[in-house]
## 1
Amino acid sequence: MMRQPKHVSDSKTEQIQILMPEHINGAGRLFGGQLVEWIDVVAGVVARRHSGCNITTAAIDNLQFKAGAYANDTLVLIGRITHVGRTSMEVRVDTYVEDLGGFRRAVNRAYLVMVALDEKEQPTEVPGLILETEMERAEWASGERRHELRKQRRMEGY
Ligand SMILES: CCCCCCCCCCCCCCCC(=O)SCCNC(=O)CCNC(=O)[C@H](O)C(C)(C)COP(=O)(O)OP(=O)(O)OC[C@H]1O[C@@H](n2cnc3c(N)ncnc32)[C@H](O)[C@@H]1OP(=O)(O)O
């Protein structure tokens, strides 16, 4: 059954963390594994909101640590859906450190592929995506290329 398409804004998700001592690694910076866990949760919520289904992470396609974050920083994670296939959704998660003046410094960008699952845990069709802005259309076009590239890589056993 064809499902009603949704807007990018319908599933946009924001998570805030204040960095505590338990999030910091031996070098005094935010532990990357902790950040990946938060990123995965944000992407999971975006995918659940878009699909209305349980989801699983199929791939973390790209993960770039751009700058460090430190104890007591305010961390802002923003997840947006960028592309949908038949059963998969690509989610981009941007992470920033927000200073006391509200300025946000980018510390990480990640793209994840989430797959919607039916009650038998099998991949199931997801709603289409309504693109409204130039940025959303540009992300979709690059997402389309990445989707094809991933398929190609899987066929090659990469
Ligand atoms: C103090 C703190 C300490 C912290 C310490 C560190 C912690 C650091 C935490 C890190 C956190 C990490 C993130 C964990 C994330 C989970 O924990 S989620 C649980 C783990 N993930 C799983 O179990 C998924 C396992 N995989 C599967 O179940 C199946 O491969 C899948 C994903 C359901 C796909 O099933 P399939 O039979 O391949 O189905 P198929 O119809 O061929 O493909 C379905 C769709 O998936 C896409 N797809 C399939 N495989 C792939 C792939 N490899 N790539 C991209 N797309 C794919 C296909 O293109 C297709 O898309 P559409 O063309 O339909 O749009």
## 2
Amino acid sequence: MKPDKSELAAHQLWTVDVAGYPVELPIVPIKPDFAISLMMVIDLGVRFGEHVGRELAARLAPLKPDIIVGAATLGIPVAIEVTRALGQDHYVILQKSPKIHLADALEQRISSITSKGEQRLLLDREAIPLLAGRRVVVVDDVVASGSSLKGALELVRRADGNVVGIGVILTEARDWQEALGADCALLHSLAHIPQFTRHGAGWVPIPETFL
Ligand SMILES: Nc1ncnc2[nH]cnc12
């Protein structure tokens, strides 16, 4: 179900405090009786981007990462802002669409609750030397099913990267706990959001989707 702009405007909002920065997220149905509070990090402005970069970097710096890896699409601004806040320059992006230079990329299949069907993550073979034997932190905007992060971790490990941490702006519900398994211990998050079920004309959080 794809919300159009007029529907979004009428949506109920969910407020979440992201490490001291409150944001109001529209509650968007993705099935008739099931909704998520949608955080489009690219629509929240540069101050929010700078804030989450600084707050995640403060939590991730003690892990002494050599390089940050971000998964397309919305992990890209997170990777850039965390890299900037750490005072580093280079980062590695795992792409979703095969750009012209990615014909021979390492590939991992994933699925997502906010995008249709099966997708894949691609690692440019040229970027392997930036990861092999290095301390790697993987970042993303939201972890929900855990499929995208799990695929990203697998790709980094196939490139012989040593994953020392995972950083996300938001954890959402709890499905990711099963998908990530032991890798949950590596996870740093700035805030948590529940998922929602219908209640009369509106939406209420599903109790089991809180942490
Ligand atoms: N709540 C959410 N906002 C943005 N992207 C998401 N991906 C999964 N859940 C999401």
## 3
Amino acid sequence: MKNFHLYAITGEEFHPRKDVIDVMEEALQGGADIIQLRDKTSKKPDVLKKALALRELTLKYDVPLIINDHIDIALQVGADGVHLGQDDLSLEEARRLMGPDKIIGISTHHIQEARAAQEGGADYIGVGPIFPTKSKKDVVAPVTTNYIKEVAAEITIPFVAIGGIKLHNVDEVLSAGATRVCMISEIVGSENVQQVCSQFREKLKPYQPVNLIVNGENHELHVQSIQELVLHFKLKPNLIIAEVDGEIVDRDSWSHTPVKDGTKIELVEFIAGG
Ligand SMILES: Cc1ncc(COP(=O)(O)OP(=O)(O)O)c(N)n1
Ligand SMILES: Cc1ncsc1CCOP(=O)(O)O
Ligand SMILES: [Mg+2]
């Protein structure tokens, strides 16, 4: 499945005067890279209408569309996947209906559910609610950032943290080990949806790995500068010459020489003395 980091879920009760499709377009413009239609109150034909409109929108932005709860609607509109709760149909049944290539996400609240989801073939898991939230009526008690730590240490499929996440507390979520976050109210309830999404993207940046080619080998690393790269490889800075995309970079500039996906770096260690 295509990687994602900023997951925006619809929540029309948070923007009574704005159209859901416009709100989600603003989220996409701000950098949301996966969208979920979650509508717990509309009649099925209305959910279907919104799903069709969101399908068109997400294809325009080349971003996956996930439908919450309704597998039939997901199939009917050609969505990329479905999100299941623990009490919905089984992963096995969902996979049988959706086929091998569609995305199936499932909510988890403790590590046993996370293990079962991974073994059962889920493509990603929801991890939450991390904090208290008013966006879900039948919500369980907050699982706290401790659950993120457990999942990050053990689970190998992608996981996304959800529940009560705001710009002011997302750092706690990311420093506990999450690299993907999912929000309803903080995104769609904002006056400036695009700006909030861009702010989340900025918060996420330091936690995203970059793909670098270091001395001819591909590495996926959590580093932001040449300085951090040299430290990552536990090299002695004063014995290293760094070449970035063919240009030698002065040691004094390493800390403010950013690295991005695809950068080619040569780190040459020289032997001091004669
Ligand atoms: C990404 C993500 N994680 C968790 C949920 C919650 O799903 P569920 O437990 O089925 O509850 P409802 O959303 O249906 O109330 C989610 N939707 N998305
Ligand atoms: C759907 C869902 N599942 C767990 S918490 C939650 C609600 C998330 O909404 P918010 O980001 O507004 O707290
Ligand atoms: Mg559900």
